[in-house]
Write a structure and sequence with these properties.
Elements: E1 2-9, E2 21-25, E3 37-39, H1 51-57, E4 62-70, E5 73-80, E6 92-96, E7 105-107, H2 119-125, E8 131-140
Parallel strand pairs: 2-3, 6-7
Antiparallel strand pairs: 1-8, 2-6, 4-5, 4-8
Length: about 140
């Protein structure tokens, strides 16, 4: 298992009701149209991950877990890798329930989207000062 930790923050415009994706972005702005975005100002991007993690992400036998912790609330989004993943995006990472892949895709076939996350967590994420401790796990099977 390989692990990387980073931090992101809440935003007043967090809605968290998208049904197929959940996103963390390094951007500081968020409009109400970004219904899948649950964290902004992330201090890590997909492109900044090391080459070993990018290699692991290309295997369909790798489980990828995004763990979001806000105080006493923890959510885990679990999906898998895919040979088409590039991790080339400089801004966003997106967990997708579908098998669609682009440069922003962190994982496919995720078990949760933004609308599946604990509503108490989403309420806390509407506060810009809320820090999100994020952890990515890459588990080879």
């Amino acid at each position: 298992m390989h692990r990387v930790q980073f931090q992101a923050y809440g935003h007043a415009n967090v809605i968290g009701n998208h049904r197929t994706t959940v996103e963390i972005t390094s951007e500081s702005a968020l409009t109400p149209r970004g219904t899948c975005i649950v964290g902004v100002r992330a201090d890590m991007t997909l492109q900044s991950l090391d080459s070993q993690l990018k290699r692991l992400a290309k295997s369909p036998n790798t489980r990828i877990v995004l763990k979001l912790t806000v105080e006493d609330l923890v959510e885990e989004i679990e999906g898998r890798g895919d040979p088409r993943l590039t991790y080339s995006d400089l801004v966003s990472m997106v967990a997708r329930k579908s098998s669609f892949v682009c440069g922003r895709t962190l994982m496919i076939e995720a078990n949760k989207a933004a609308s599946d996350l604990n509503r108490s967590l989403i309420e806390r994420l509407k506060q810009p000062e809320t820090a999100i401790d994020c952890e990515l796990l890459f588990i080879s099977e």
